[in-house]
Specification:
The protein is an alpha/beta fold. It has one domain (about 5-330): TIM Barrel (Alpha-Beta Barrel). The protein is built from 11 helices and 11 strands. An 8-stranded parallel β-sheet has the order 1-5-6-7-8-9-10-11. Strand 10, helix 9 and strand 11 form a beta-alpha-beta unit.
């Protein structure tokens, strides 16, 4: 049996969606048959290609890279956490239904994750339940809602519900701070995204979230968990030395290793080795950030080049860990 290769981190954008009057949703400018531009108001946010919405294009690229299946998650600019809960729910419903249409022709190889109006935990739980019943396998959330981080009571309520219904959660950074210093060189993406993910992992630990949610919660953080793995020692030292300030968790930070996973989008085997050493070989899942330009292609190249991995561990990173995270059946072990 060959090892399944399962990409946990990819995004989609529908080719179009019904007009949402008064919602001020980012919109799509179709440039030609193969390209479009995500517009935020009158400004260009990102150029995208047909592979964002066309299953055949995605499946062809997966064939080139040897990918068995990929999780298809929302593009974070459409989360709409700044809208009213009712507006955000309407937008989520439209995009979640579109995701099912995009992934339907794949024979199960494209695995949809939904989005929810995270600013309202009751609506978020209800939309998650609707989507799971319709065919979504999990949910992608942003790493914060305005000034509310993942330890906010409402978000904790939603995470508790995810654990109860067995929905895997993928956390993606978004809405990074901007300034004159950060608006050069894509610095928001190069420094802001890793910092945002690091900060959210601190919220999960120091905010006591892991003490309040069941251990059954399956949660994975994008981009290798940001800078968390590199600075775990600093966090651990601070917890012991200044427990009067940051000692809100029941246990030292290192004791929560094993409660979460990260993806493998770190681009270098040396960085991947740090992840494996810190979070454990069972908690690093293959990711690519496909189809965006800061993603990894060919998908899985860094895992395949990592000479420090045994073949059994390489198989876990390429697909075994993701199969467990997604509760996929054994049929994903393809001949």
């Amino acid at each position: 049996m060959s090892t399944p290769v399962i990409d946990i981190h990819t995004h989609y954008v529908p080719a179009g969606w019904p007009r949402l009057d008064g919602e001020e949703v980012p919109w799509l400018r179709i440039d030609n048959e193969r390209e479009a531009t995500i517009m935020v108001g009158s400004g260009e946010f990102r150029r995208i290609q047909r592979n964002c919405w066309d299953a055949a294009e995605r499946l062809a690229d997966m064939g080139v890279d040897g990918v068995t299946a990929q999780v298809v998650s929302p593009t974070p600019v459409f989360f709409s956490y700044d809208k009213t809960p009712a507006q955000a729910l309407k937008i989520a419903e439209v995009f979640n239904d579109a995701a099912l249409k995009i992934t339907a022709p794949s024979g199960g190889r494209l695995i949809p994750f939904c989005q929810v109006p995270l600013q309202d935990p009751d609506l978020a739980c209800a939309e998650l339940d609707r989507c799971l019943a319709a065919g979504h396998r999990g949910v992608e959330i942003g790493n914060h809602v305005g000034d509310r981080d993942l330890d906010h009571e409402g978000i904790v309520q939603f995470l508790q519900h995810c654990a109860e219904v067995g929905a895997p959660v993928f956390v993606h950074p978004w809405d990074m701070p901007n300034s004159a210093r950060l608006n050069r060189w894509m610095a928001q993406w190069l420094t802001g995204m890793p910092a945002e993910t690091h900060l959210s992992l601190l919220a999960m630990i120091l905010g006591g979230v892991f003490d309040r949610v069941p251990e059954s919660l399956k949660i994975c953080f994008a981009h290798g968990g940001g800078s968390f793995a590199f600075w775990l020692g600093r966090l651990e030292n601070a917890w012991h030395q200044r427990n009067d300030i940051i000692g809100t968790s029941e246990k030292p930070p290192s004791k929560y290793i094993g409660r979460f996973s990260v993806d493998s989008v770190v681009f270098e085997p040396s960085a991947l080795r740090l992840l494996v050493d810190v979070v454990g070989v069972n908690h690093v899942l293959l990711g690519s950030d496909y189809p965006y330009p800061l993603g990894e292609r060919p998908v899985g190249e860094v895992v395949r080049r990592a000479s420090f991995l045994s073949e059994a561990d390489r198989a876990r990173l390429l697909g075994g860990n993701a199969a467990e995270f997604l509760n996929l059946p054994a049929l994903w072990e393809t001949p």
